[in-house]
């Protein structure tokens, strides 16, 4: 991707439409959404600032609680004013992230193209086939040899040197054991051709693109909404600063993304879902062994467990990493298993009782950071 840092004071300036203007524009936007056949969203760092993650291009005197963007901080060389910043792994998806989940589930939205590497779209519940993460995802690593992807519950980017992508982990496949690399695209590096091609295919199909929280200054990403406009589709931009694509947009809304999306959802009579952490485990058991596999919604490996402790009679078996495979179990009685998680959202350990007659089972584990309660359900 190519860097294009904001340079002039005018480009850093933030604009705010009045409430009446926002209401009028949202009403028009909702009409466009209801008429569209292939509505896509294009998202930038501005949808994650309300989660406490600073963006790249906000000016030093921004109204955002996350303070100036990364480039401005570098340029100003003085401590930034910030009232809200959280560690990226602890960030809770914003109202915008959660509303997009509902818009997708209700058939309004067809695809999301994102410039963000914070992984919040996947965390919010957007399935990977409905998402093009142009610049990568800090929770994803890929095998250099067999290309197998692994999603983790920890930031896999280990080096401050942007040229180093090795994560230090190896492929789980015993026949492969290739080196794993992160998929972050730094400035000067080429985008993954599969990802950018899919994003362009979605743009070509799209008759409406809602670009939210992006200054639309980084290419080739910014060519996605441009492509929609070029093919005759409508582009609506929600951003505090002006963007180079304002002139080809059908409408520009200068307001916070969360404010706009709340009004959109209200007019569509849709609820914004409450964020919860969704995990799955697969259990395989026979008379002599027990295997517990943490998986994602597609059944692919997802290492969100820190450790698993199994009580077998009087013995306590514990494996910290790897496949969670326990041999020489009694397995004739119910087995008590204690799962420990990474705990980014303060999620406590969870005790699961595996019945003696269990052979194979998939469990859904849902945790609400609001209530602090795990909900366990069998998946059939
Ligand atoms: Zn491999």
Automatic annotation (TrEMBL):
Residues 19-271 form the Deacetylase sirtuin-type domain. GO terms for molecular function: histone deacetylase activity, NAD-dependent; metal ion binding; NAD+ binding. This is Regulatory protein SIR2 homolog 7. Zn(2+) binds at residues 143, 146, 171, 176. It comes from Stentor coeruleus. The active site is at 135 (proton acceptor). One of its GO terms (cellular component) is nucleus. Belongs to the sirtuin family. Class IV subfamily. Keywords: Metal-binding, NAD, Phosphoprotein, Transferase, Zinc. InterPro entries: DHS-like_NAD/FAD-binding_dom, NAD-dep_sirtuin_deacylases, Sirtuin, Ssirtuin_cat_dom. The keyword Membrane does not apply. It comes from the Eukaryota. Its cofactor is Zn(2+). Coiled coil: none annotated.
């Amino acid at each position: 991707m190519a860097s294009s840092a904001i340079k002039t004071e005018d480009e850093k300036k933030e604009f705010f439409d009045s409430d009446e203007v926002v209401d009028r524009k949202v009403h028009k936007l909702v009409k466009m959404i209801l008429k569209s056949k292939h509505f896509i969203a294009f998202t930038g760092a501005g949808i994650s600032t309300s989660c406490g993650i600073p963006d790249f291009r906000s000016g030093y005197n921004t109204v955002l609680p996350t303070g100036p963007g990364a480039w401005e901080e570098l340029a100003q060389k003085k401590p930034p004013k910030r009232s809200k910043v959280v560690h990226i792994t602890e960030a809770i998806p914003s109202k915008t992230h959660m509303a997009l989940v509902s818009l997708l589930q209700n058939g309004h939205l067809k695809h999301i193209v994102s410039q963000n590497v914070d992984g919040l779209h996947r965390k919010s519940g957007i399935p990977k086939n409905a998402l093009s993460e142009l610049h990568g995802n800090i929770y994803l690593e890929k095998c250099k040899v067999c290309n197998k992807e692994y999603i983790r519950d920890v930031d896999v980017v280990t080096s401050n040197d942007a040229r180093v992508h090795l994560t230090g982990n190896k492929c789980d496949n015993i026949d492969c054991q290739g080196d794993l690399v992160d998929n972050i695209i730094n400035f000067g590096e080429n985008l993954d051709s599969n990802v950018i091609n899919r994003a362009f295919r979605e743009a070509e199909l799209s008759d409406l693109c809602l670009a939210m929280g992006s200054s639309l200054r980084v290419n080739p990403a910014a060519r996605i909404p441009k492509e929609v406009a070029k093919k005759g589709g409508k582009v609506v931009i929600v951003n505090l600063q002006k963007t180079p694509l304002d002139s080809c947009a059908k409408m520009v809304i200068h307001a916070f993304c969360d404010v706009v999306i709340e009004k959109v959802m209200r007019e569509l009579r849709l609820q914004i879902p409450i964020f919860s952490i969704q995990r799955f485990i697969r259990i395989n058991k026979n008379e002599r062994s027990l295997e517990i596999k943490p998986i994602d919604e597609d059944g692919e490996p997802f290492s969100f467990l820190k450790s698993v402790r199994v009580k077998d009679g009087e013995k306590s078996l514990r494996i910290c990493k790897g496949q969670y495979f326990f041999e020489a179990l009694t397995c004739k009685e119910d087995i008590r298993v204690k799962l420990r998680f990474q705990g980014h959202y303060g999620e406590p350990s969870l005790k699961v009782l595996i019945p003696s007659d269990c052979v194979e089972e998939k469990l859904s584990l849902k945790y609400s950071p609001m209530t602090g309660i795990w909900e366990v359900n069998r998946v059939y």
